């Protein structure tokens, strides 16, 4: 049987009424050391009643130095739980969405200004902080990161697990480990950023070791039936960099450790990346990993045409479809997709009179 956009999916204990996911998108809107604000409540609250089955909160830093910008969301302190719980509690009202959170550490790409302030590197003393990478090899144009030794790797690993416990207190249904876009864990995977010659570097096995170690600890700390997935960059789009074949090997190893899904983004490790961007441009990465590693995948990237999003599922190239910018542009994307594809979905009781077609949908 083929899957379609408005078919339900059960993943672990998670029952999703359709295949639409709001992709994690940084809001750069914390005002007080990583705490969630009214912006986050309004933004995620709106998306939680958008008809998407699952909303994944933005990259949320497990340590203060793991923020991309000073305004990024954090989960390194117990005081972060309250603001996050407020969002999840709202989303869990009837006809709301399941809520995920992306646990992140920006590594050697941390400490920059928010995009609308130029996105330039911020130095210690100038609003920024010391940054960390897999190696002391900088992202071109940025300062040299500190290479963690055994003790520091242990501290960072513990920070991930502590963050997970806070996410559990806040009530999240799902955790996504951020291993993409050149950030800390991705910097271990990619040969473009991992130049270590100890057990945490070298060949593919050594480069996968630290991200797998983090995954293993999270899996052990998160209830076994609760969904734990990983977002990866399926390729660096650079010759000599991480490839989709490497992604298949990594996805197989993750699956063996109890990973529920892999989300296939790409790039971010090098400014030399050459990407042919277009509708569905990352879908082949999802298709290959799903086929060859036998794991559920989320496809993402310019999938805002509902017919294309549906076809990706029908062709068996992904299990879920994440929409990013399309959701910011049109938070009712799922309703429009439902009309286009003649699917069925639930809308909040408060909104059911908004359009004649909505009255026909089961509530
Ligand atoms: C404003 C914005 C913020 C983003 N922040 C994150 C993030 O926190 N974590 C992440 O993995 N990807 C992030 N992304 C990437 C998106 O999740 C998504 O993969 C990308 O936008 C491609 O999908 P789209 O074509 O549907 O927008 C961000 C994208 C945008 C536009």
UniProtKB/TrEMBL annotation:
<dbReference type="GO" id="GO:0003959">
    <property type="term" value="F:NADPH dehydrogenase activity"/>
</dbReference>
<dbReference type="InterPro" id="IPR044152">
    <property type="entry name" value="YqjM-like"/>
</dbReference>
<dbReference type="Pfam" id="PF00724">
    <property type="entry name" value="Oxidored_FMN"/>
</dbReference>
<protein>
    <submittedName>
        <fullName>Oxidoreductase</fullName>
    </submittedName>
</protein>
<keyword id="KW-0560">Oxidoreductase</keyword>
<dbReference type="GO" id="GO:0010181">
    <property type="term" value="F:FMN binding"/>
</dbReference>
<keyword id="KW-0288">FMN</keyword>
<keyword id="KW-0521">NADP</keyword>
<dbReference type="GO" id="GO:0050661">
    <property type="term" value="F:NADP binding"/>
</dbReference>
<dbReference type="InterPro" id="IPR001155">
    <property type="entry name" value="OxRdtase_FMN_N"/>
</dbReference>
<keyword id="KW-0285">Flavoprotein</keyword>
<feature type="domain" description="NADH:flavin oxidoreductase/NADH oxidase N-terminal">
    <location>
        <begin position="5"/>
        <end position="339"/>
    </location>
</feature>
<dbReference type="InterPro" id="IPR013785">
    <property type="entry name" value="Aldolase_TIM"/>
</dbReference>
